[in-house]
Amino acid sequence: MKPFKDIGILADDQKGYLLIEALIAMAIFAIGFLAVGSLVIHTTRNNTRSNMMTQATLLAAHRLERFKNTLNIASLDPGIYTDPDNPIDADGNPGGVYYRFWEITDPLGNNSSRRIKVTVKWLREGRECDIFLTTITGGRGI
């Protein structure tokens, strides 16, 4: 059996093949790197959006719990109210990006219960986002 170089399968002049292979490998690597970079950007954006929504939900739930623990439910006058500390941060302190509002109604009309709807709004990438939580309570934590 003859070696490959003797039967003419391998040419003696193969200059430039390594350069072409390196360029193809770099192109494949660049495409993969761009895909991973895009994935990281989208994941970060979604994590930030989810974090802000979680913080807003906790702000609404905290205010709702305060209303539910009111001893005398009749002391909560029906109406629409704005948090005096607006805008608030994730801890409910003044100076954040969230705006909290609540609406109190008397669903039965006999001062024995209140329907409370707490809304939290914020701006994200130029769009207004909001969540709201609603409950009916008789006060005293129930």
Explain the overall architecture.
The structure is a single chain. The relative contact order is 0.14. The model has no long low-confidence stretch (mean pLDDT 87). The protein has one domain. The longest helix is centred in the first third of the chain and has 52 residues. It contains 2 helices and 4 strands, in the order ααββββ. By secondary structure, it is an alpha+beta fold.
Spatial strand arrangement across the major sheet: 1-2-3-4
Q: What's the average pLDDT?
A: 87
Number of domains: 1
> So what's the overall shape?
rod-shaped
Radius of gyration: 32 Å
DSSP, total strands: 4
Q: Pairing-aware structural class of the strands and helices?
A: alpha+beta
Biggest beta sheet attributes = 4 strands, antiparallel
Helix proportion:
25-40%
* Strand coverage percent: 15-25%
How many H/I helical runs?
2
As residue ranges, the low-confidence spans are none
Order of helices and strands: HHEEEE
Question: What is the first-to-last residue Cα distance?
Answer: 93 Å
List the helices and strands and how they pair.
Elements lengths: L3 H4 L9 H52 L10 E4 L16 E7 L8 E11 L2 E11 L5
Antiparallel strand pairs: 1-2, 2-3, 3-4
